[in-house]
Write a structure and sequence with these properties.
The protein is an alpha/beta fold. It has helices at residues 16-24, 27-39, 54-57, 60-69, 79-85, 106-117, 132-136, 146-163, 171-178, 180-202, 217-231, 241-244, 268-281, 303-327; strands at residues 46-51, 74-78, 94-100, 121-126, 139-142, 208-212, 236-240, 258-262, 285-289. Helix 4 packs parallel to helix 8 and helix 8 (146-163) packs antiparallel against helix 14.
């Protein structure tokens, strides 16, 4: 690392390959659950992706995948709002995926119960087999960590798209998932210097912006809201790249820090436009662009798919660990969450 840190930098997640393989082993069960939902009289008319905070934001790649690969409306909704709003389209033809990392989010448990009461096919994805969210959902798929959750959501996406008549088998994408642990390790090694530089220069920030587009918008929200605000108590804001240049850019001056996530999906030009703007007006623009990574063994056609999951299941968490090392504040520290009634 470039400067003396307050805490040692944590090592990357251990046994990523084993955690991902445990999810890949679930493919027959995932396919069977989606097939059963599609075989109901109402079929699959729409998909709701429901959660809170990072669990909601991490649906971004799945939302993008379904919107571009499956002929069905997809709604990304905060769990509390989902229950209060009571969407009129929610019903027997709905497929609801409720996500909660530990499974202890009351709003998500209520959302799962509400969706089931309306006749929707409901599944929870969580790490907690005995959690309130797992108990509230008729079906549960378990994972062990962000990397495995990304693979689980991808398999759900493949199964839904196939059931809805996609002509693709997604074999190449699934093959990439089988290499995903090595892909992550290599990508984190190649981005280590950049992540170190960002945290070294910005761990005392009085305000930082994170910008992304398409399937990576949720990763920007996760970094800003969950890691920097919630865990590091640093002022941060996330923006969709398509909206940043419609007002928010007025805050940018020579030393305004902005992190830009640029993937390789169809929305890439939006990120490149932000990059060009920042190069003109601030010296503190940080660009994390997967196009410069080797991603060995990943076919060109599959790089957009892989890049979106890298931001969510590897880059945000790892960059947060660099911030943790420099600030000296553990990512487990909270003022209010799980400590007070709210």
């Amino acid at each position: 690392m470039s400067l003396e840190t307050a805490l040692p930098l944590k090592p990357p997640t251990e046994d990523v390959a084993g955690k991902i393989q445990s999810v890949l082993d679930l493919r027959p069960a995932i396919d069977a659950w989606v097939h059963a939902a599609a075989s109901r009289e109402a079929g699959i008319k729409n998909v709701y992706l429901v959660g809170c905070g990072g669990s909601l934001f991490n649906f971004s790649p799945l939302q993008y995948f379904l919107e571009t690969e499956a002929d069905v409306p997809v709604f990304l909704v905060n769990a509390a709002e989902f229950t209060f709003r009571q969407p009129t389209q929610l019903g027997a033809g709905s497929l609801v995926i409720a996500s909660s990392t530990r499974g202890n989010t009351p709003e998500t448990a209520k959302a799962a119960e509400f969706a089931a009461s309306r006749g929707a096919a409901v599944v929870a994805i969580t790490q907690g087999p005995e959690s309130i969210v797992a108990q509230a959902a008729p079906a549960v798929f378990l994972h062990d960590g962000a990397e495995a959750k990304g693979a689980l959501q991808a398999l759900l996406g493949f199964a839904i798209a196939r059931e809805l008549g996609s002509s693709s088998t997604f074999d190449a994408e699934e093959s990439a998932l089988r290499q995903y642990a090595d892909i992550i390790a290599s990508a984190l090694d190649e981005t280590a210097h950049l992540f170190d530089r960002i945290a070294a220069e910005q761990h005392g920030t009085t305000g930082i912006y994170v910008v992304a587009s398409g399937p990576n918008t949720g990763a920007a929200q996760t970094l800003a809201m969950c890691y920097l605000q919630e865990m590091q108590w640093l002022p941060a804001s996330a923006f969709d790249a398509g909206e940043f240049l419609h007002g928010a850019m007025e805050i940018v001056v020579d030393d305004t820090p902005v992190i830009v996530f640029i993937g390789e999906d169809a929305t890439r030009p939006m990120g490149e436009r932000i990059q060009a703007f920042l190069e003109r007006f601030t010296t503190k623009g940080y660009v994390i662009d997967t196009a410069g990574l080797s991603l060995a063994g990943v076919p060109t056609s599959v790089r957009p798919f892989v890049s979106s999951w890298l931001f969510h299941s590897a880059f945000t968490g790892r960059l947060a660990q660099y911030f943790e090392a420099y600030t000296g504040q553990p990512l487990t520290t909270r003022r209010y969450m799980w400590k007070v009634e709210y």
